[in-house]
Structures are given as C-alpha cells and as structure tokens.
TrEMBL record:
Transmembrane segments: none annotated. It holds the Pfam family Sugar-bind. The keyword Cytoplasm does not apply. It comes from the Bacteria. InterPro entries: NagB/RpiA_transferase-like, RNA_pol_sigma_r3/r4-like, SorC_transcr_regulators, Sugar-bd_dom_put. The keyword Transcription regulation applies. This is Sugar-binding domain-containing protein. It comes from Enterococcus casseliflavus EC20. Residues 61-311 form the Sugar-binding domain. Keywords: DNA-binding, Transcription, Transcription regulation. Belongs to the SorC transcriptional regulatory family. GO terms for molecular function: carbohydrate binding; DNA binding.
C-alpha cells in the first residue's frame, strides 16, 4: 500500500474511532462521498491498520450466543458463563437470565403459555415483580399428580401471573391419563377444552427440553417407569417437550404415552411465535440439538458448556 494511501486511511479511521465523528461528518471534512468513507474504514480494518477489541468479560458468552443464533436461525440465544459457578449457582443464573429475557420480550405480549419442570420453576422464582396486568398466563399441560406441585404448570402459571400482576388460567386435568376414554371425557369438558384452545394461541411459550433417559424429572417423580422407558427407546424417542416425546426428526412419535397426554402438542407449539426453551446439562445436548434443528423452539436459554457442544458437534 502506498504510504499516502495508508496515511489517508489512518486519518479517516482516527476521526471515526478516536474522535467519534460520523461518516457523514468525515465525508464533509475530507470532501468525498459518505460511501467512500465507509469503504475506507473497511479497507483500514482489512489492511490491519485498525483492530477492534471488545473489553468485556461478557464477550465469551455473547460470542456463543451469536454463533448459536446464526447456526440454528434462532430469534435469540441466552448463554450463561458457568466458570467458577457451583451447580446450584448455575441453576439460579440460568433462571435469572431466562427471567430477564422473558421480561424484555413480554412487554408486547398478551398471552404466555407455561409448561412444567424445575428449570421453569427457577425462571419464575427469579422473575421480578412487575406491573403487566394485561398478560394472561396459560398452562400448556395438565398437572403431574399430588407431589412436586411447585413444578406443575398450573402452579407455575399462577406464580408468574402473580409476579406480573396479571391473570392465570388453570387446566383442571392430569398431564397423563390411563386410558383413551378418560382422555376423551376430560377433553370434551368445555372448560378444559377452552383452556387448551386458548393455550395454543399464546404469544410466548415457556418450555423445557429433556431426555426421558437422562436426569428425567418425569422418571424422578414416578410419572414414567422402567417399562415406559424401554418402550420409548424401542420407538426411537430422543427427547421431550411439554411431555410430548419426539424422535430424531423432531416429530411427535405415535406411542401410548403421547396419546395419553392432556395438553398442547408439538405441532401446535411450533406455531407459537416465540417458544423459549430453558434447557441445560450436557446429557441433554442431543434432544436440545434436535429441538433446535427442527424449530421446536426458537429461543434457547442455556449454559456455555451446552452451547460449545451444540456448536462443535460433528
């Protein structure tokens, strides 16, 4: 590069990066077009005359977020840096970051759908008290028995709505029923049918992504047993969202457990404009990957460990 040309590029870069002048102001000072100034700034970077450093400890997680968004065409990714964090601190941080993201995107929402599980409990616990009285929170699935009520969709819907000063609807039905006739009778109930229909039309859905075979809350609380898991493996199940089991293609599998669920199915969840998946833990990478690849969720809140595996898997 000619020294005269180099000097001109340095001069333009100094005015832009050090003096804070706009491209239009620089163009007027030098007497060239704004587009030429823009080109010169690009040339200065490509020639190594300008190097830009982002001086923030958040650059690590922010870079992972952008890579996830680009690779999986996500609306957004939220990545928690887990360095020096104990497991219980990771749970809290993921819940807090999920809550902050929900607070931001829910400002224009009228209806929020709530699934169930521990990760969503952490999000609700970390959601700040706000005044969002126009919002109604709907359960996306029925209840999970008498135990562990704090992670049921109805309870989570109530608690989130209370923090928002909004309203909650309730699905007075179990998540899983024992036979088709019971499901038919319950889903023909006008109240239950109405809540499920409205839950399909929410603006934002909050869900977990899990594997029934690894650290499964459904197995932990006794909602599925060893025979169920054997059957799921034989059917090629890879993960579940809202207690709907999917295979490697991201499709809901034709199995008895899926037929027994009272709640919103995966096809309807995919139609919801914003589906936020709160999912982390390296044993859940495969179901998370499938959920991302097949657009079962379009926002992911996770950890750096999971993000790195999702980005670098073969």
């Amino acid at each position: 590069m000619d020294r005269t040309d180099e000097k001109e590029l340095v001069k333009i870069a100094s005015m832009y990066y050090e003096e804070g002048k706009t491209q239009a102001e620089i163009a007027k000072i030098i007497g060239v077009s704004r587009s030429l100034v823009s080109k010169n700034l690009i040339d200065a970077k490509e020639a190594g005359l300008v190097e830009i450093f982002i001086n923030s400890k958040s650059v690590y997680s922010a870079t992972l977020e952008r890579k996830l968004e680009q690779k999986y065409q996500l609306k957004s990714a939220v990545v928690v840096d887990t360095m020096d964090l104990a497991n219980h601190e990771v749970d809290k941080m993921v819940g807090r970051q999920g809550a902050l993201y929900l607070q931001k995107v829910s400002k224009k929402a009228a209806k929020i759908g709530m699934s169930w599980g521990k990760s969503l409990r952490n999000l609700v616990d970390n959601y700040p008290f706000t005044n969002q009285s126009e919002i109604t929170v709907y359960p996306l699935i029925g209840g999970m028995g008498d135990d562990h009520v704090d992670i049921h969709s109805n309870q989570l819907s109530y608690d989130l709505a209370r923090k928002m000063r909004g309203r909650a609807k309730y699905l007075y039905a179990p998540a899983l029923v024992s036979n088709p006739q019971i499901k038919k009778d319950l889903t023909e109930n006008s109240t239950i049918r109405s809540v499920i229909a409205e839950a399909r039309e929410v603006d934002i859905a909050l869900v977990g992504v899990a594997s029934p075979f690894e650290e499964s809350t459904m197995a932990e609380i006794g909602y599925i047993d060893d025979s169920d898991m054997k059957s799921l493996k034989e059917k090629g199940i890879k993960g579940d969202i809202n207690s709907r089991f999917f295979d490697e293609t991201g499709n809901e599998v034709d199995c008895q457990l899926n037929k027994s669920v009272i709640g919103v199915n995966l096809k309807d969840i995919k139609k919801i404009p914003t589906v936020i998946g709160i999912a982390y833990g390296t044993k859940k990478v495969l179901p998370i990957k499938i959920a991302l690849e097949h657009q079962l969720i379009n926002v992911l809140v996770t950890t750096d460990e999971v993000a790195n595996e999702l980005l670098h898997e073969a």
